[in-house]
């Protein structure tokens, strides 16, 4: 959640009890950092999901590799944010999901990408092995102000048989985030199917 008109250090302190009540492990502030302005600070963690405050971005983030877990915890944390007396319409500029997703494939990702897109650059004719190594996609719905950005590329750790999708989805309501999270796997599957993966 991108926040405005919220004192983030105070919010951090206020979130500790509700997060404990949700069985999150509270992460203590690093020794010697009290009174020092941090870029970001992890507040709590549970089941591979962490909650952080990014002071430099004025954001309350819920982070993890499993979109369904992140979405479920996001819903609970947003409810606690409201229970603390915060008015989302006055304090939340937007909500967003940021995720790195790794997907296995039987084909080499760069081969798939280059079957879909050709690179006829005559200026690089002295380099016969040129290829497109990533596909950046953006989709915006002007009616709802929802935006989706995806970068599809070979996974750096296993480029011969896995894709990495770097995804960013932005919306103006928490309901949109929950709805998107429930269908993100289907969206990704359809995109990869259309690419021939």
3D structure, described in words:
There is one protein chain. With about 200 residues, the protein is an alpha+beta fold. The chain is built from five helices and nine strands; from the N terminus they run E-H-E-E-E-E-H-H-E-H-E-E-E-H. It has helices at about 10-20, 65-85, 90, 110-115, 175-195, and strands at about 1-5, 25, 40-45, 50-55, 60-65, 90-105, 135-140, 145-155, 160-170. The strands form two sheets. A five-stranded antiparallel beta sheet has the order 1-6-9-8-7. A four-stranded antiparallel beta sheet has the order 2-3-4-5. A hairpin with a 4-residue loop joins strand 7 (about 135-140) and strand 8. Helix 2 runs antiparallel to helix 5. The two termini are about 35 Å apart.
Task: Itemize the secondary structure elements and their pairings.
Layout: E1 2-3, H1 8-21, E2 25-26, E3 40-46, E4 49-54, E5 59-64, H2 67-83, H3 88-91, E6 92-104, H4 109-116, E7 134-141, E8 146-154, E9 162-171, H5 174-195
Antiparallel strand pairs: 1-6, 2-3, 3-4, 4-5, 6-9, 7-8, 8-9
Helix pairs in contact: 2-5
How would you characterize the largest beta sheet? 5 strands, antiparallel
Number of domains as seen in the coordinates: 2
Low-confidence stretches: none
Q: How large a portion of the residues is in β-strands, by DSSP E?
A: 25-35%
Radius of gyration over all CA atoms, rounded = 20 Å
Quantity of strands, as a count:
9
Structural class: alpha+beta
Give the proportion of residues in helices.
25-40%
Morphology call: elongated
- SSE pattern, N- to C-terminal: EHEEEEHHEHEEEH
Mean pLDDT: 86
Distance separating the two termini: 33 Å
| Main β-sheet, spatial strand arrangement | 1-6-9-8-7
């Amino acid at each position: 959640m991108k926040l405005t008109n919220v004192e983030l250090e105070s919010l951090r302190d206020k979130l500790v009890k509700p997060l404990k009540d949700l069985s999150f492990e509270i992460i203590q502030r690093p020794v010697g950092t009290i009174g020092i302005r941090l870029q970001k600070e992890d507040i709590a963690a549970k089941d591979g999901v962490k909650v952080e405050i990014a002071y430099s971005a004025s954001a309350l983030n819920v982070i993890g590799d499993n979109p369904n877990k992140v979405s479920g915890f996001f819903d609970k944390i947003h409810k606690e944010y409201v229970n603390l007396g915060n008015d989302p319409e006055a304090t939340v500029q937007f909500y967003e999901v940021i995720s790195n997703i790794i997907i296995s494939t039987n084909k080499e990702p760069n081969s798939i990408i280059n079957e879909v897109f050709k690179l006829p650059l005559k200026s690089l004719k002295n380099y016969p092995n040129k290829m497109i190594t990533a596909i950046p996609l953006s989709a915006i719905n002007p009616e709802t102000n929802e935006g989706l950005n995806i970068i599809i590329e070979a996974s750096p750790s296993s480029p011969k048989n896995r894709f990495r999708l770097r995804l960013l989805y932005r919306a103006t309501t928490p309901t949109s985030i929950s709805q998107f999270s429930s269908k993100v796997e289907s969206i990704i599957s359809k995109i990869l199917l259309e690419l021939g993966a």
